[in-house]
């Protein structure tokens, strides 16, 4: 019996080649597209699943909150790990800290070459006990035991030493601290939020950082992980953390600090804290991927069902003959189900090929390639097989029952098709299919528009034509003044300043106390002179910082001091005495106007400072976060200057190359011991929207797949419907209908379905898109043009899809049309 | 044995709230071994009657007995089983499955009877030889002449050795030569013991039957024994 099914399936496929191709490819594309999404979901949800203690590992996070202002940090102060382990030894088994000075990159040299390495961390010797990273060389028990030891990745080993054995070689950290290579990490393709190339022993820091720093409970630069003896202790430990904070944290901040435990496996998808160790994903998009995968499968499945049905009608005669000679309904259902499953098996082969072709180009939401580990997972193969065959089976049920229900008495009436009516259910399926396709198209439009909006929104400062050079963590910072002086000699360079963090990307918090409130930790941008000028930030009250070395510039030829904007006479000590705040901070501090804030005291650890200016609000982080109060503080010439990590250079937009060349020459002349890295601020800030960018790309690609599959089904269906109308067309043609009248007559029924789909999809997508957009504090408005464009695109595509069939028949000469009667 | 018996059978089709009486209190009996022709003008209910007695359709009222068993309460599955085991069909337009070869078309009823492959092969071979189509066994229906297609259809109808063969205008699409050949084959089958019920417009073909039933407006007008066949 099975042989008979196989035979007739094969012959049917070959007989109706176009139908078969459309049907199989549609299903294959649907399975492939959903598999790709499944791969992404699997990748996103597999982060850090390979560690043996994964359920027991928690990261300690710190919330500093002063009336809604502060930070929620992924890292905590130095002593946290060991103190927790000591105080709660009955629950905490071990701990590990990672530290990189919170620098964008750290300088590493070998022989006469220097590189800026962004994936360099110091870690406690327990690193390899807590996390299951394997070494291809070296002893994991001892590799991090001694100071001045470092384990490197295979790619770094190759970069620094080529094919030489790296073990025992010495590299130099920050031009002065030697590190002995004691191990090499085995190449791993398993996804983890810990992205590193160097892990140096924490004990090395004793020679780089004063001992008292390790005891401080304020600065929070350590990503700290603990392993609990049992995961159930997490609740008990969490309950103890407020007591812990009260016991150890600084008096002035302990009331505003809360520590919490974050499960390791939640970090990648459920964490979006300040100072994350690497860019994370977002659980929201995992759900969206899941829904998209299901919708695409649904479209493919409906397609398969509709086409099988339409094709089945051509086999009505076969069905009634089989019934007449004794096949019962059950046997026919079995036959058509078997055919359906067989076709889906063929589709599976194409799906496998599609997935294999697409796999190398797959990136996750943070822009990293989907790991080989996931791609080679047998579960994916199982998923494709099960999904494909299940879809084949489920999609086969309706056509099978529909076909098997044909009345065998039709056999005496000549043309079996005559008695078969168009099932309404199929029209409903077509509408569902197009509703999904339109939804995906609208979602693409909205996500692309939202992405463009975020990337091009007015941030309140200039991000174009600003070159950023990381200098933190190296002696380059000491050369800043001279670098700036020489850079300004080039006419391609307009202005130069320095900042603690990349403006618009992130910020630090520092402690301040205003005249009317207690001290608190406020978001702070520590800067060098010419900050407002470089970023073109608008001052709404008071004045900018004044560089005392430029003091002569504010005296006129007669020697009169003529800077009216300068409200204070102590500009010579702006570094020590002055801060600028934003409008939100004015409100936060309770001043009724920006003018009122000017000259008010604002104390920091440096002493009493005054508010000398107020700037218009601008976005110090991505548009994922609302505007917030912040302080702009001028780095003093001593300790604070060392905190500056970046030089920001405003360049002439017409002389970009010249400006870069000038930078390279100045760097080469002044700073031979460090490699030069630079990037454009705009590019860096655009990367803040990597998730949205990836999602709009994915959404775009899958909308195309969805529309393509839906149209393939529509094409097949149109062929059948138009064929059934051939007689009507003949009559209409004979009595004088024009080609366009015929095309209109043939198209109206199908296009009506598309219009209904648009009417159904529009309100659904409006609601869904509003929900999605509401997760952004700043978002686009859902304007009618989004819906109009989507509807127009769908109408045009579907009309073109069916016009192949409609024009073919409509263009018949009246003689041909009459003959077909 | 009365292989077919209908008692006051009525068939009413309802369309747009209008009832059309296709058959009206038809009483018919067919004995085993008979060759019965059903004649009548178009629309008189010939095909409807054939549908009912071949267990393809259910009457609106009345009762159809097949092999002396009431069929009114039979499930769809049971009626399919009866068709499979005891009934063969020959149609005017042959109704061969285009995707199956001559051999596979003839084999199909045996597949539904779940016979083992060796027995199927033997029976198909016998049927093909009997109808003289063995040399065309690998051909597909489209590659055959009308006469050959109908031979294949007859071979398929008899391959499972049915007790009754229903033929619906079996020569309607054939030229006179091939039509005569088919009628002679049916006649031979009847002589070999197969009961045949045939619907025809052709008086000449009707003459091959033992008995001719005239239908008119859904009722049996006359039923006479064909004296030439006796």
Essential attributes:
heterodimer, A: 821 residues, 13-stranded mixed sheet, seven-stranded mixed sheet, 46% helix, 16% strand, B: 230 residues, alpha/beta, Rossmann fold, six-stranded mixed sheet, 7 helices, 10 strands, 34% helix
Short description:
The complex is a heterodimer of chains A (821) and B (230). By secondary structure, chain A is of the alpha+beta class. Chain A has 25 helices and 24 strands.
Polypeptide structure, described:
The complex is a heterodimer of chains A (821) and B (230). In chain A, strands 1, 2, 3, 4, 5, 6, 7, 8, 9, 10, 11, 12 and 13 form a 13-stranded mixed sheet that branches. In chain A, strands 18-21-19-22-17-16-20 form a 7-stranded mixed sheet. A 4-stranded antiparallel sheet of chain A has the order 15-23-14-24. Chain A has 821 residues and is an alpha+beta fold. Among the domains of chain A are: 78-248, no CATH class; 475-673, no CATH class. Chain A has 25 helices and 24 strands. By secondary structure, chain B is an alpha/beta fold. Chain B has one domain: Rossmann fold. In chain B, 34% of the residues lie in helices and 30% in strands. Chain B has a 6-stranded mixed sheet, with helices on both faces. A 4-stranded antiparallel sheet of chain B has the order 2-1-4-5, with helices on one face. In chain B, α3 runs parallel beside α5 (146-158), α4 crosses α5 and α5 (146-158) runs parallel beside α6. The radius of gyration of chain B is 17 Å and the shape is globular. Chain B starts with a strand and ends in a 5-residue tail after the last strand. The model of chain B has no long low-confidence stretch (mean pLDDT 88). The A-B interface holds A 1, 4, 7-8, 11-12, 15, 317-318, 320-331, 407-409, 411-414 and B 47, 50-51, 54, 56-57, 76-77, 80-81, 83-85, 87-89, 91, 93, 95-100, 104, 108-109, 111-114, 156-157, 160, 168.
């Amino acid at each position: 019996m099975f042989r008979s099914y196989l035979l007739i399936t094969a012959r049917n496929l070959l007989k109706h080649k176009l139908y078969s191709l459309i049907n199989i490819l549609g299903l294959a594309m649907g399975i492939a597209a959903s598999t790709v999404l499944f791969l992404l979901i699997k990748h996103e949800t597999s982060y850090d699943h390979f560690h043996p203690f994964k359920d027991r590992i928690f990261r300690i996070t710190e919330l500093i909150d002063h009336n809604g202002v502060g930070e929620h940090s992924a890292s905590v102060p130095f002593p946290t790990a060991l103190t927790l382990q000591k105080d709660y030894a009955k629950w905490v088994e071990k701990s590990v800290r990672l530290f990189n000075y919170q620098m964008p990159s750290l300088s590493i040299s070998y022989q006469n070459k220097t590189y800026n390495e962004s994936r360099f961390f110091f870690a406690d010797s327990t690193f390899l006990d807590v996390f299951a990273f394997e070494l291809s060389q070296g002893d994991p028990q001892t590799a991090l035991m001694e100071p001045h030891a470092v384990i490197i990745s295979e790619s770094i080993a190759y970069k620094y030493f080529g094919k030489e054995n790296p073990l025992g070689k010495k590299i130099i950290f920050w031009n002065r601290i030697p590190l002995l290579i004691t191990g090499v990490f085995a190449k791993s393709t398993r996804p983890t939020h810990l992205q590193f190339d160097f892990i140096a022993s924490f004990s090395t820091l004793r020679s780089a950082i004063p001992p008292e720093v390790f005891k401080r409970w304020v600065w929070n630069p350590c990503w700290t992980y603990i392993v609990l003896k049992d995961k159930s202790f997490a609740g008990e430990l969490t309950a103890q953390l407020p007591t812990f904070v009260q016991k150890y944290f600084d008096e002035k901040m302990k009331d505003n600090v809360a520590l919490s435990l974050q499960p390791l496996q939640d970090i990648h998808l459920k964490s979006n804290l300040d100072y994350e160790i690497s860019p994370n994903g977002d659980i929201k998009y995992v759900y969206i991927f899941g829904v998209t995968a299901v919708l695409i499968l649904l479209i493919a499945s409906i397609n398969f069902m509709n086409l099988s049905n339409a094709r089945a009608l051509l086999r009505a005669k076969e069905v009634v003959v089989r019934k007449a000679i004794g096949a019962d309904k059950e046997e026919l259902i079995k036959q058509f189900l078997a055919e359906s499953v067989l076709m889906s098996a063929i589709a599976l082969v194409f799906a496998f090929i599609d997935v294999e072709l697409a796999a190398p180009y797959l990136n996750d939401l943070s822009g990293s390639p989907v790991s080989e580990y996931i791609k080679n997972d047998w579960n994916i193969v199982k998923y494709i097989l099960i999904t494909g065959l299940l879809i084949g089976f489920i999609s086969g049920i309706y056509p099978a029952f529909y076909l098997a229900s044909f009345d065998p008495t039709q056999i005496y009436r000549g043309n079996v098709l005559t008695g078969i009516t168009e099932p309404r259910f199929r029209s409903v399926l077509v509408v569902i299919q197009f509703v999904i396709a339109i939804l995906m198209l609208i979602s693409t439009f909205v996500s692309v528009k939202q992405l463009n909006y975020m990337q091009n929104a007015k941030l309140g400062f200039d991000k174009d034509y600003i070159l950023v050079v990381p200098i933190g963590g190296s002696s380059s910072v000491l050369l800043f003044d001279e670098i700036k002086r020489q850079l300004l000699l080039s006419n391609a360079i307009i202005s130069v300043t320095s900042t603690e963090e990349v403006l618009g990307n992130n910020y630090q918090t520092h402690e301040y106390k205003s005249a009317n409130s207690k001290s608190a930790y406020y978001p702070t941008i520590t800067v060098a002179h010419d900050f407002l000028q470089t970023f073109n930030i608008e001052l709404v009250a008071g004045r900018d910082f004044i560089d005392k070395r430029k003091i002569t510039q504010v005296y006129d030829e007669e020697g009169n001091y003529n800077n009216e904007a300068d409200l204070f006479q102590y500009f010579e000590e702006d570094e020590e005495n002055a801060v600028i705040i934003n409008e939100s901070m004015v409100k936060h501090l309770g001043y009724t106007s920006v003018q009122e804030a000017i000259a008010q005291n604002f104390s920091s650890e440096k002493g009493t400072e005054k508010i000398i200016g107020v700037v218009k609000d601008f976005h110090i982080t991505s548009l994922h976060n609302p505007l917030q109060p912040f302080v702009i503080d001028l780095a003093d010439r001593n300790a604070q200057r060392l905190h500056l990590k970046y030089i920001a250079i405003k360049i002439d937009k017409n002389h970009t190359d010249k400006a870069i060349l000038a930078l390279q020459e100045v760097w080469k002349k002044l700073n031979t011991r460090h490699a030069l890295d630079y990037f454009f601020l705009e590019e860096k800030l655009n990367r803040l929207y990597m998730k949205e960018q990836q999602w709009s790309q994915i959404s775009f690609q899958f909308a195309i797949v969805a529309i393509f599959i839906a149209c393939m089904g529509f094409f097949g269906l149109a062929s059948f419907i138009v064929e059934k109308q051939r007689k009507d067309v003949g009559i209409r043609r004979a009595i004088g209908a024009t080609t366009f009248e015929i095309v209109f007559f043939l198209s109206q029924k199908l296009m009506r379905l598309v219009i209904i789909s648009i009417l159904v999809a529009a309100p659904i997508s409006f609601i869904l898109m509003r929900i999605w957009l509401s997760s952004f504090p700043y978002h686009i408005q859902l304007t009618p043009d989004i819906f109009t464009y989507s509807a127009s695109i769908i109408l045009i595509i579907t009309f073109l899809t069916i016009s192949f069939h409609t024009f073919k028949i409509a263009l018949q000469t009246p003689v041909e049309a009459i003959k077909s009667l | 044995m009365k292989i077919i018996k209908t008692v006051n059978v009525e068939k009413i089709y309802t369309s747009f709230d209008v009832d059309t009486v296709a058959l009206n209190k038809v009483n018919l009996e067919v004995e085993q071994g008979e060759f019965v022709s059903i004649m009548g003008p178009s629309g008189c209910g010939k095909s409807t009657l054939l549908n009912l007695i071949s267990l393809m359709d259910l009457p609106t009222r009345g009762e159809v007995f097949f092999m002396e068993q009431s069929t009114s309460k039979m499930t769809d599955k049971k009626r399919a089983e009866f068709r499979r085991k005891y009934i063969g069909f020959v149609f005017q337009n042959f109704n061969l499955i285009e995707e199956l070869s001559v051999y596979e078309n003839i084999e199909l009823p045996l597949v539904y009877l779940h016979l083992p492959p060796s027995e199927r092969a033997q029976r198909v071979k016998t049927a093909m030889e009997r109808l003289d189509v063995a040399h065309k066994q690998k051909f597909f229906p489209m590659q055959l002449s009308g006469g050959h297609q109908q031979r294949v259809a007859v071979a398929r109808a008899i391959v499972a050795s049915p007790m009754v063969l229903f033929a619906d205008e079996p020569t309607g699409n054939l030229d006179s030569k091939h039509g005569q050949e088919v009628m002679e084959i049916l006649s031979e089958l009847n002589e070999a013991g197969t009961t045949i019920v045939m619907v025809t417009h052709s008086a000449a073909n009707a003459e091959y039957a033992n008995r001719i039933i005239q239908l008119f407006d859904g009722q049996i007008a006359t039923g006479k024994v064909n004296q030439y066949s006796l």
